[in-house]
Amino acid sequence: MPTAFPADLADRLLAWYDRHRRVLPWRAAPGRQADPYHVWLSEVMLQQTTVAAVAPYFRGFLDRWPTVTALAAAPLDEVLTAWAGLGYYARARNLHRCARLIAENHGGRFPDDEAALRDLPGVGDYTAAAIAAIAFERPAAVMDGNIERVMARLFAVTEQLPGAKSRLKALAAELTPQRRPGDYAQAAMDLGATVCTPKKPACVLCPWRDACAGQHAGIAEGLPARQPKAERPTRHGVAFWTLRRDGSVLLRRRPDEGLLGGMMEIPSTDWRDRPWLLDEATAAAPAHTEWRSLPGVVEHGFTHFRLRLTVVAGHARAPELARGLWCPLDRLGEQALPTLMRKVVRHALAKAY
Length: 353
Ligand code: SF4
Prior knowledge:
Blueprint lengths: L8 H12 L15 H11 L4 H14 L3 H6 L2 H8 L5 H17 L8 H5 L6 H12 L8 H10 L10 H11 L5 H14 L18 H5 L16 E10 L4 E6 L10 E2 L12 H5 L9 E2 L4 E4 L4 E10 L9 E4 L10 H13 L2
Parallel strand pairs: 1-6
Antiparallel strand pairs: 2-3, 2-7, 4-6, 5-6
Helix pairs in contact: 1-11, 2-3, 2-8, 5-6, 8-11, 9-10, 9-11
This protein binds iron/sulfur cluster (SF4).
Iron/sulfur cluster binds next to helix 9 and helix 12.
């Protein structure tokens, strides 16, 4: 790996950015200062998902809550409902907590340095650096998966991730310029997303091509090297599609802490390592009735495990009172149902009738 690199790498990337920058809903026009609220909101939304998936959510949030103070004043449930479908709901809860904290403790203004930003709920190293650089022109080294990949290739770093992280960050920090650090951060993100892509990087279009050690050595596409991932285990559960005579279905709120915290769900058993027998599962059912297994299963991937949910359907007998919320089928769209539970609803509607 080279220890010295051409002094004009940052300038070359900025010149490339001036011609090829992506137009994104949260990005300020060239030469304009970015709004910290827009940067923060988009970066939190973009964690673990794609630009295309985030764009409509971002616009929807801004239409509804144009400032961080407006978001802070919104009921949590409305925020969770608007977030539904983006996944990782702890982030939506932290988003709301963070908005409240900024409204109450910072007079509705985001702090402008990395360390103070990192103290906010749900704001980690990456998001703090991105806000500091893009909204406040601080020369912060912004590291996400895209930029790690570009650095590993540019400097031909063959050490495996995650061990190589600190080395890649040090290299990125050394390259980060004092001039236009916000544009530089966005340029590096764009380069990773559009040119130095995980498969088949378009090196002929790259402003760093002649300096790129990975490209010269013919090893760029295989970088960054990663430790092989452990196989994700599978967990099993049973979801209870519980109908009332008036055609409404039973929902329940999940506990605030833990996976899908605070979101509405179709009541289900625990999710455990081995499959459930129907008799065993119905001990955890929300109503005493006859349960009928629907054909097929609902599969869903979480970061650390895969889930297979069997759905069983039953009718709650009047006057039995199951605890939860009875929701008319045509109003399910208004509930803060996470993606997994939307899959359960679709499965039940397709198989139960
Ligand atoms: Fe990535 Fe190719 Fe550019 Fe190197 S030359 S940084 S591998 S796109």
